[in-house]
Sequence to fold (242 residues):
Amino acid sequence: MCTLEKRGRVFVLTLTGDGEHRLGHALIASIRAALASVAAQAAQSGPGAALVTVAEGRFFSNGLDIGWAGTSRAKLGELVAALRPVAADLLALPMPTVAAVTGHASAGGFLLALCHDYRVMRADRGVLYMSEVDIGLPLPPYFVALFRAKVTAAHALRDVLLRGRKLRAPEAREMGIVDVVCPGAPETAAEALRLAEELAARKWDGAVYASIRVSMFPDACRKVGIVEESDEDKARSFASKL
Fold:
């Protein structure tokens, strides 16, 4: 399903195997367990950590496991609900996060990449693609909230969600969706690791970092189930840091 290793200050979560990395119950549970381990280890080791998520094979993730769901809307709803806390885990993770998009990222896989703070993508292969409009599926509210938060240009959001435009890396960078474009998969993974190391070296307070992230995307965080601190709690937290 996935593996987790630590390279210096950087945690590397790898979706393993040559398949499509479809987000079914088993893979979702494996990712959540890895993210829980990252958070726990970071809490013990103190400030200065980052996460890279990368995948083996031609796909970063081809979305929810619609093969398992078949024509059952109830089963598809189960997977939509199961993916929601993964988004919450990433948005609340107390460290910078980098997605190394080394292959196709479609639908839920695109969402998974967007849940990271930074995206590095290969230029020679792979697209970002929201297939829902093409296959006739409505978007869950938390999907819409996350795309609105992370795809800030109106024309880009329209083309991604309403046109089903398949984005290669250079186009995604022009739209502000991808931060860095690399020639191929090895360079993409290496650049993601380099960026994560640079961010981890800043030794930011993880709780503060996560709090700022949540405050940047309040609607998306509410939609995935993250309860934002009240203004009073924020004031107390701020005072305690002085």
In short: The CA atoms of residues 70 and 76 lie 8 Å apart. The chain has a mean pLDDT of 94. DSSP finds twelve helices and nine strands in the chain. The longest strand covers residues 2-7.
